[in-house]
Amino acid sequence: MLVGDHLYFTAANTNVLTVLDAVTGKPVQAGVRLPGVRQFYASPVYAGGRLYFTDREGVTVVLKPGKQPDVIATNKLDDAVDASPVAVGKQLFLRGERFLYCIEGQE
User: For residue 90, which of 101, 102, 104, 100 has the smallest C-alpha distance?
Assistant: First the structure.
């Protein structure tokens, strides 16, 4: 996920986060384990100034982007998730194995 001058990605579907400087290609952060999540099939999403990483067990870790991304929330659904979240306006849609979830932010 490209946000500003930083590229965020995880290694081989794991919870190991790398942040690269998009201009130079040099690592800003490497080998950082995202807490509370394990394995990803879904792509990360950037919406409302936040990064969302959702793992296969339905846990979403929310990061504030930057050179050292801060975890600002961890949320758990009672459902497996393999699909990438979709952001529409203030809503975030997550397609679980059993249900479609819509989470709406306040502002």
Answer: 104
- 76/58 Cα distance (integer angstroms): 6
Q: What is the pLDDT of residues 33-61, one digit of tens each?
A: 999 999 999 999 999 999 999 999 999 99
Question: In 10 A of CB 4, how many CB atoms?
Answer: 9
Angle among Cα 30, 14, 22 to the nearest 5 degrees reads 40
- CA distances (Å), 75 to each of 7, 56, 61, 100, in order? 23, 13, 6, 16
Distance between CA atoms of 27 and 9, rounded to whole angstroms? Answer: 11
- Claim: this prediction has a pTM higher than 0.85: yes
d(CA 83, CA 96): 7
